[in-house]
Amino acid sequence: MAWLAAAISALTFVYLFVALIRPEWF
What we know:
Layout: H1 2-21
């Protein structure tokens, strides 16, 4: 289950990073 938590954390980090760089996508 640790891999699932790591995947969710990575996706959340990428989502926030993209939201900061490309806010017009949202």
